[in-house]
Amino acid sequence: MELALAPETLARWQFGITTVYHFLFVPLTISLAALVAGLETAWVRTAKQKYLKATKFWGKLFLINIAMGVVTGIVQEFQFGMNWSDYSRFVGDVFGAPLAFEALIAFFFESTFIGLWIFGWDKLPKKIHCFCMWMVSIGTILSAYFILAANSWMQHPVGYKYNAGTGRAELTDFWKVLTQDTTMVVAFHTLTAAFLTGGAFMVGIAAFHLMRKKHIKVMRTSLRLGLVTLVIAGVLTAISGDSLGKVMFRQQPMKMAAAEALWDKEEPAPFSVFAYGDVEKGHNDVAIEIPGLLSFLAHSDFSSPVPGINDVNKSEQQKFGPGDYRPNIPVAYWGFRWMIGFGMSSFAIGLAGLWLTRKKFWLSPGLRTGDEEPPRLALTKNKVLGARLSKAYWSLAFVTLGFPLIANSWGWIFTEMGRQPWVVYGVLRTSDAVSPGVSQAEVLTSMIVFTTLYAILAVVEVKLLVKYIKAGPQELSDDDLNPPTRIGGDSADADRPMAFSY
Amino acid sequence: MQLHDVWFVLIAFLWVGYFFLEGFDFGIGVLTKLLARDRRERRVLINTIGPVWDGNEVWLLSAAGGTFAAFPDWYATLFSGFYLPVLLILVCLILRGVAFEYRVKRPEERWQRNWEHTIFWTSLLPAVLWGVIFGNIVHGVKINAHKEYVGGLLDLFHPYALLGGLVTLVLFTFHGAVFASLKTVGDIRERARRTATAVGLIAAVLVTGFLGWTQADKGDGASLVVLVVAVAALVAALAATRLGREGWAFVFSGVTIVAAVAMLFLTLFPNVMPSTLNESWSLTVGNASSSPYTLKIMTWGAGFAAPLVMLYQGWTYWVFRKRIGTQHLAADAH
């Protein structure tokens, strides 16, 4: 009882629940903002109706999603103070600044321009309306960057010194916090993964409609955009993930050893495909491995030594005093694999789709399809997939929209739990970070309240998404096609209804 | 003036901005039950703040983030100490944001009505709770030598704080009614003015009482001047409402909020959270603030960002400057 419900345990569960939940919405918001802005730009430049229809359709899903992202983000701004007051006192001098900048610069961008975009269809000339969505997009990316700089400092604290007089970490070089390699690589990895998420979302929903031969024109365009985004983002996510791994092998060898369930130093070190072991005894009972691959992931060659969990634990004991410096190894090991597995499956499905739905390349003219018909899935120049295989592919493409969400969640669970027992690596332990004045009952209350509320809202949100996904793009009205030319709207009719109202 | 004094002013500025802007948002939420006669009128009210409420709410996040960066101990003590009221505010803000966005996404009567109830309660509760919280900050709470809040939940609900909660609720509702009369046309506009007058009179009594109490407890010459400004502005707002000068009425109801919040911060300084157990245990701008280096960086950042924010937020209000009435509601509920 005492251990299971220790304030630290409860506070960690609460942070995990609220943050993983929040991060279901974040990557979609980041990527869909940019994709919608791209589609609206295409409408502004070409005046093709399919782009406006697509803008409105994806924009609607984006809004349903960002509403949840925004409100669950509010909690994040407060819960450091609520549940982690000793953490806040210790790191506020360093950690607070990027958080404050996130609010002052990024959140204002997002929230103000999203209001203009939602209500601005009949108030703003189309170029300015489109510009608003680009500002939202910039806001989402800046927001990600600042919060990742803050998180990277927890992973690898730089640009600070410990002040014994005040008993806290104090900032000495803000620029270093913003530009250290951890920040840069993590931002790169998180943003590319966000676009992988948005690409897969678009592919999945476009596949859903194309399988039913509905809304073909808009969905063909969306499928193409989604597939290209998914594949490019997939490649970049893999590249950035590899760089991040190399940085982590250097900065947090324990996390990476745990990710591989590598107990003792090996030279060359193998990559583990499957492992089952005994954490107490510190070894694996079953291990299937690819020789040398881990050395390559860590150091770009197939022979370098990689230290194991037991080695790092010993060296940390020497450095920081007696204790157990091992994170939860099964979570780290499997979290790492779920992240890569789900992320890369999505990428593979996207790559297959890009090939199968190609327009002209290595495709006999008889198999080419026009704008008004769903693409045929062509395996080779003259051979298309049969009905059953085609259906299987479309179904697979549909379900892939959920894969990156799983990958993102496990990626964060892995990187945060892999850092334990530290909240700021090598500087502050998680057990020293909780609020001493907050009672068990209070933390338990808030955890139950947030979990219940989030569960209910999840049902509401998913049902709404399903409703609007199924409905598909709407037909355009004359007003949609004739946006105002002046700011504030140029209608002479004082009683004209708004283009959108709550 | 040292940097931590500058930051005290900036944090006060962010809270003032928040209460000025979300003050009328909360007021509109409360008025959906007080003023609107039917669903269409409720929709009109909600749409007066439709494009702007989200941007207004970011002032709160900036105030919280700014406090974290500039006064980590203030941030830590405040939010861990006032745990359950803060939790309730967060729950309200979550539901309220979703309610605005999702209410119109389904045509069913029950769906829309439920979200409308949500908007009312999630506007009313934070409006009260912020007053209670600020009443406690100014009044002082049980803080020990380690800067930890050691009081209980019920310690937060003493007469001064409760009056504070009532003041913010009524003042925000007044501010919202004035805003509604400025932003609507037709029948509802006239009724908004009448509601503003009635609520404004109650607000005048309550504000004078609360600020007078504050003055008697902690005030000095400067705070007295600001108190007079707050009360005079409230009277001017009432007079302008009577004269049908809605723009001026809004300016003055805004000045009332600015002056009232400014007075609270003025009486607080140089403390940020006074301790009622031992004066030397109080959190002050000196012992709760960040290092000068951090404050310098924050000053540059805020100096660059805040004017820009006000510029483009101001532009938003200009884009949506037209009054709206029931005839302007979009036909389709999507």
Automatic annotation (TrEMBL), chain A:
Subcellular location: Cell membrane
Isomerase is among the record's keywords: no
Residues spanning the membrane: 20-45, 57-75, 95-119, 131-154, 186-211, 223-241, 336-356, 392-413, 443-466
Record keyword Oxidoreductase present: no
Pfam family, one: Cyt_bd_oxida_I
The entry's keywords: Cell membrane, Electron transport, Heme, Iron, Membrane, Metal-binding, Transmembrane, Transmembrane helix, Transport
Membrane-protein topology: Multi-pass membrane protein
Region (Disordered): 479-502
PANTHER family listed in its UniProt record: CYTOCHROME BD UBIQUINOL OXIDASE SUBUNIT 1, CYTOCHROME D UBIQUINOL OXIDASE
Similarity comment text for this entry: Belongs to the cytochrome ubiquinol oxidase subunit 1 family.
Protein name according to UniProt: Cytochrome ubiquinol oxidase subunit I
Species, as recorded: Streptomyces kronopolitis
Species lineage: Bacteria, Bacillati, Actinomycetota, Actinomycetes, Kitasatosporales
From TrEMBL, chain B:
Transmembrane segments: 6-36, 82-99, 119-140, 160-182, 194-216, 222-241, 248-269, 297-320
Bilayer topology annotation: Multi-pass membrane protein
Entry coiled-coil feature ranges: none
UniProt keyword Isomerase present: no
Domain of life: Bacteria
Locations listed in the record: Cell membrane
InterPro entries cross-referenced by the UniProt entry: Cyt-d_oxidase_su2 (IPR003317)
Keyword field: Cell membrane, Electron transport, Heme, Iron, Membrane, Metal-binding, Transmembrane, Transmembrane helix, Transport
Keyword Translocase included in the entry's annotation: no
PANTHER family: CYTOCHROME BD-I UBIQUINOL OXIDASE SUBUNIT 2, CYTOCHROME BD2 SUBUNIT II
Family label: Belongs to the cytochrome ubiquinol oxidase subunit 2 family.
Full protein name: Cytochrome c oxidase assembly protein
Organism the protein comes from: Streptomyces kronopolitis
